Amino acid sequence: MKEIYVVEDHDVIRSGVVQYLELSGYSAKGFALIQDARKAICEKTPDLIIQDVMVPDGDGFMFIKEIKKEYPELPVIFLTARVEESDRILGFELGCDDYITKPFSPKELVLRVAALFRRVDSSSSEKSDIVTFSDDNHELIIDSLQHQLTIDGEEIILTAAEWRIVSYLSSNAGVLITRSQILEECFDYSFESYERVVDTHIKNIRAKLKSGNWIETVRGYGYRFTGKKV
Q: Which Gene3D superfamilies match (predicted)?
């Protein structure tokens, strides 16, 4: 059974989300404070964190930034009243897998959770497939089963969302991929307002893949993985 931690200081919202998740077949625990959630994560890592941003004892964004340093592949959904596009972009820059604004539909939340777990489980069940790419100066190796990416022997740590994007682009090396295709294949939604989220993830990925020019931007259209399979 998937275990979900819900960090939300509003008692009614927190208990409602926990109840709805449990009725949908998940194990869920609620926390009003970041310090309690941090302690619980240290004792047992959940399968997903649903995180409010404005919490009495801290900033949800900064808490997730801290958690992602130690658990980069831990899925995160922000559930917040912060509706500005800049806040949503910041959430994705920090490595969240989804961003849901209040007021929200509990049914939609559960559907988003289910979609996220489908992506994670599908990725985890991939066959062991180690693929090597080259850009003439550097060597990039992707191990699908271990979720491991190295460049010239150095391991690059990616978030779960970044891994899905790199995996999708590299499996279509040389093919021009639109932002909407990346949203549909890697995030299960295709809202136009979320296309900037793709750009944010690509920027973060490029910063991590600092050796070589692996992802080409095709202005006004999308991206192309330029590594050549060895």
A: 3.40.50.2300, 6.10.250.690, Winged helix-like DNA-binding domain superfamily/Winged helix DNA-binding domain (1.10.10.10)
Average pLDDT over the chain reads 89
The answer to whether residues 131 and 141 touch, using CB atoms and an 8 Å cutoff, is: yes
Q: Is the dihedral of CA 203, 209, 211, 215 positive or negative?
A: negative
Kindly report the pTM of this predicted structure.
Answer: 0.72
CATH tag for 3-124 (out of 3.40.50.150, 3.10.180.10, 3.90.550.10, 3.40.50.2300): 3.40.50.2300
Please write the tens of the pLDDT for every residue from 17-71: 999 999 999 999 999 999 999 999 999 999 999 999 999 999 999 999 999 989 9
Q: 130-229 architecture in CATH?
A: Orthogonal Bundle (1.10)
**Which residues neighbour 3 within 8 Å (Cβ) at sequence distance 6 or greater?**
26, 27, 28, 29, 44, 46, 47, 48
